[in-house]
């Protein structure tokens, strides 16, 4: 059975210019990886320049009564965007709203209390958290057009964490690093789509609540980066279930000891092995997700693909955000095999050139 050991959380993720690699059960006060010494060793550069190579992302995935979707924050310091994509489960109709802006530090470092977003009248999006108060809220209000309706929503944390995990991994060498923090938790939601209002969930009925998977990460990105990840959320035997599986061209060389794959089930965390994600039938066809430890054997069946291409200055991004369902098997750390069928989730295939 695959095992990966937890480490004791250090006071900082970078100490004396060296990343503190490891897997941690909770987050530090700040998810900050600045001032790594010579992360690009071919050319020694001052930290002012190497810090500019750090990119940050927030992915906020939701699965609620009526809708499934994702809110993406991307921050490259000189280019930022926020995108909201929601799918109606019954009609499969997609609602996508994006705002692009530049020269702003969007994703916060403070993991205890922070607020960030875009506050324009036509695309108001705010995410905030306060760990001491167990509060986590996402609010957006997007003005529609001829193709899209006005859409507003509020998502609030409504219970205890299902699980959380912090990882600092080589990216791919030990000179550079990726730091990430993820957690899953129940949410309540109010959505208003002109002219219909959806009111969801009560604390008394846990099964009918929604689930959120939150992921925040920072990394020293390569000039060309490709990554694929999958997030699934739902209920098995009326208990909350969530996982994240990913692969990229900046994965650690020693992936057995350093990766970010994780399964949360009923307040238990299972650290998963590295996986291979392939889509032999194209982005719109079945994706195959497998490992070499017999813990992950899944298929992801896309339902709808939201493709976006953006190009500004020297930066070019191509994003596929895919809504679909999972089937197959996942194994927990105690050997329990969870047979998954029609579990909804989000897949993402991203390419960045900088």
Task: Tell me about this structure.
This protein is mainly β and 354 residues long. The chain is 1% helix and 57% strand. The protein has one helix at residues 47-51, and strands at 14-15, 18-19, 22-24, 54-63, 67-75, 80-88, 94-101, 113-119, 123-130, 135-142, 151-157, 163-170, 177-193, 196-200, 210-220, 224-236, 239-248, 262-265, 268-271, 276-278, 287-290, 296-312, 315-331, 337-353. A hairpin with a 2-residue loop joins β1 (14-15) and β2 (18-19).
In short:
This protein has one helix at 47-51; strands at residues 14-15, 18-19, 22-24, 54-63, 67-75, 80-88, 94-101, 113-119, 123-130, 135-142, 151-157, 163-170, 177-193, 196-200, 210-220, 224-236, 239-248, 262-265, 268-271, 276-278, 287-290, 296-312, 315-331, 337-353. The chain is mainly β and 354 residues long.
